[in-house]
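User: My instructor asked us to take a sequence, write out its structure as tokens, and then describe one feature of it. I'm not sure where to start. Here is the sequence I was given:
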Amino acid sequence: MCGIYCCVSRTGYTELPSSMIELLKRRGPDSYRVEYHELDGWFVTIASSVLSLRDPFVPQPLRKSTSPPSLLSWNGEAWRFSDEYIQGNDSEAVFTALLRCNSDEQVSIVFSKIRGPYACVYLDGPRRKVYFGRDCLGRRSLVKSSNATGDIILASVSSSLTIDHSGWEEVEADGMYVLEFSSHYDQVDAGIFRKIPLQLDGPGEKLPCAINVPYGSLNTALPSSDSDWISSWNPELQSFERVLYESLRIRCRSLHGNPTQPLAVLFSGGIDCSLLISWDL
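Assistant: Let's start with the prediction itself. The structure tokens for your sequence are:
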């Protein structure tokens, strides 16, 4: 769990309220850093806090000293790019992949390949753009707000004590939003955002620039009432056990500390927790 804050303004840099700083640091006790950058009359304030899970430790926001610089605030866990396991720190791997992009289409390919939950804000300095969004299941928080001067604020967590804000709302988990800096706008407004939408992976006509959802269609059919009970030798059950083991392995393979340390499950009462608790890891 990490903390993200980003403010885009036409009037100047933002001083983070102490209440927001405290909330961000609670989410990421290992590191906290703020960056200020001006791009063609647009003022960008980005702050990140980090709760480090994987080696090597990488403070955020990640920065590439281009002109202007590129920055990434990442709250997530990317375990793979498609079928390729990520070695080392995942935020660094995602940032490296994004730095190679020269178009929205290439950015959409990067996010199509990520396997794992995330919310992020990416400042592409040379191309004067900010990308922000969440994975298609919305497994990491990201909210947005605006104030009287037209500034747009993005954050992992809302602060009721933040002054002069019109209220917070959740960033929809329906793609990646894009803000392109332009001298044609006097202030930031929701109408100047573009969206790289989601689309189902598989056969059929495809959009030229979209993020492929890495999941198939949901099962909408129920088995007949005379279906047999699943036995322990059932091939589907054995296949499920292999998938479950692999999903746990990639989540634990690069965590800090002893790889043989105990694994805990925070039980919420759902069938997924019941499976994990009853399974002999």
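For the description part of your assignment, you could build on this observation: The chain has five helices and 16 strands. Try explaining in your own words what that tells you about the chain.
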